[in-house]
Design brief:
Helices cover 57% and strands 8% of the residues. It has 132 residues and is mainly alpha-helical. The protein is rod-shaped and about 110 Å long.
């Protein structure tokens, strides 16, 4: 083979290698930029989600205090006593006592509220009189 053909093959090989390296580095840099942007957006999303949850909790706590005054509240508003935590309130009716938990949207009971519900349903409620 003539020397100029070998030289052309070497030049083509070196040029191809340089192009390949440039492409690989470009992909790596693009990935790093994308990953950094992804993490930044994910952190912002998490922060917004925390703020939204906090707002929902505050909204729910505010709303709970007005529910006894609603037309469709199934008890007398005068019999309802607001507690706040771990349950929203108690209704002292003439023939029974009802533990009330008010939820908005798709909110569910937390662990403590579930425990209280189970104790009430299992009739594990006591009357305790304390004298000083």
């Amino acid at each position: 083979m003539p020397a100029d053909v070998i030289l052309n093959k070497n030049i083509i090989f070196i040029f191809s290698l340089i192009v390949f390296i440039i492409i690989v580095f470009s992909l790596i840099i693009s990935y790093l930029v994308f990953y950094h942007r992804y993490k930044t957006l994910l952190n912002k999303y998490d922060q917004l989600l925390k703020v939204k949850r906090s707002e929902n909790v505050k909204h729910g706590q505010t709303w709970e205090q007005f529910v006894p005054f609603a037309k469709d509240f199934p008890f007398s508003k005068n019999d309802f006593k607001f507690i706040g935590q771990p349950i929203d309130g108690i209704v002292f009716g003439s023939d029974n006592i009802s533990f009330i938990e008010i939820k908005t949207g798709s909110a569910g009971l937390n662990i403590k509220q579930r425990e209280i519900k189970n104790l009430v349903e299992d009739k594990k409620v006591k009357w305790v009189e304390i004298r000083h």
